[in-house]
User: Fold this.
Amino acid sequence: MPHWLSPDTESAAALLEAHPDYRVLRSLPPLDLLPLPAPEARLRTAAIIDTETTSLDPTTGSIIELAICQVTFDGRGRIVAIGQVHDWLEDPGHPLPPEIIRLTGLHDHDLAEQRIDDATAIDLLSGADLLIAHNAKFDAAWIEKRYPMLAGEAWCCSLADIDWRGFGYESRQLGALLGEVAGFFNARHRADADVAALVALLATVLSSGRTACSEMILSAQRPTIRVTADGAPFEVKDRLRARGYKWDQKCRRWSKEVTSNSVDDERDWLAEHADCRYPTLRDITWFQRHRA
Assistant:
């Protein structure tokens, strides 16, 4: 029985769980109550991050909430120690758009005269071997805009660097995964609560016998090659999308990442099916991945 629940409550939950028509979710516990394994081999540090912002575009918006939690992971990629969740708000200097209020739950009065402690944030982020977010392409852009000295750090993405569908999970949304994978629900959706949810998700053991954090790191540390379909005509966009290519609005190109041993097959496919005979190839590691 999880020791943060009362015996009576857990007994009632156990009765429901024993019935095939019921599934029980438990409230996300304090992080210091999560069961963690004994460390093995080399220990390293990761900073788990979430941001709330005034827009979806870091070139025009600003961060209004930043949450960071340092964790220690061992040689098997398992979280073995969890630090404090640091959370700061910041006044953007103008009223929040209504859609941001709906999305974040933050209001102007919550942010009034608030400031992020940049010195502490930089210390936490620069002191980590890895930076982790559930949508790293989004968070990395905001972090590197605010803290240019952190550009080029290694990033992992719990959204993209784990084959959730391969493990049998249809949704990749953090709240859904927290419930389906870890068996917890999280009533709050602020940055600090999302960081806590991601820590709990990454600490969970998957059907492979490895934790989600281990699976993520194993995937993220493998180098790939980004294939960009330069010159592909507009009319092949549906074929590219079906093949797994994604449209980059910034450079206005279709691209995907493949392993080194499948590059030749990808080039052949592009030439035959997308009228693209000279794609751009770029080596990608977790020091470049999840950037535009």
Q: What stands out?
A: The chain has a mean pLDDT of 92. The CA atoms of residues 8 and 33 lie 19 Å apart. The chain is about 30% helix and 20% strand.
